[in-house]
# Entry
Amino acid sequence: MAVRSLFTASMAASLFSSTIHANLFARTDYPAEPPCAYPFTSFLYAGCYEDHNHQTLNYNPRLDSQDMTVQKCTASCKANGFRYAGLEYYGECFCGTTVKGAATTQDQCTFPCTGNNDETCGGSDRLSIYMDPTFPPIDETTIVDYSPLGCYTEGYSGRAVAYRQEQLSTTTLTTETCLQACKDGNYPLAATEYAGECVSLTL
# Structure
């Protein structure tokens, strides 16, 4: 835990270099990650699920959608500590700790993957979802499990904390609502700035 916290702090410090200040918080209690198994335990297919506005699995690892396979998506989700991996519309990959969409019939997931035509990558607003069978119980941390890292600056060439929580009101924002939004999105870092903006960062 101490090593992870040190890495988080040093990474954040290296990213921020200008004069716009942001208050960062990091979770102090991370859920246990799946054990390293040899040979590797493959994800199990869990079914076809509806996905409207990309809410069923809410983390996007931003992989190359033009060369997608089931293995690439599941490996990325496992590496980021997620229980579920989902593939949609030929090559989009999403991850999540829970599945927030409704199951549907298998004939709704028929699109071939861009990186392997023999595999299925969901459909239009439909996810082919896989589950890590080695994953521990679901994360039950709360916003109390975040701790302040201090005040940092942003770089000139881009956002230091990349994912703005646009759904939150800039006029009524509080630290607590920002932390909750970042936790709901499975982000380990949360930041507030400009008196009313909430943004998140992945490791």
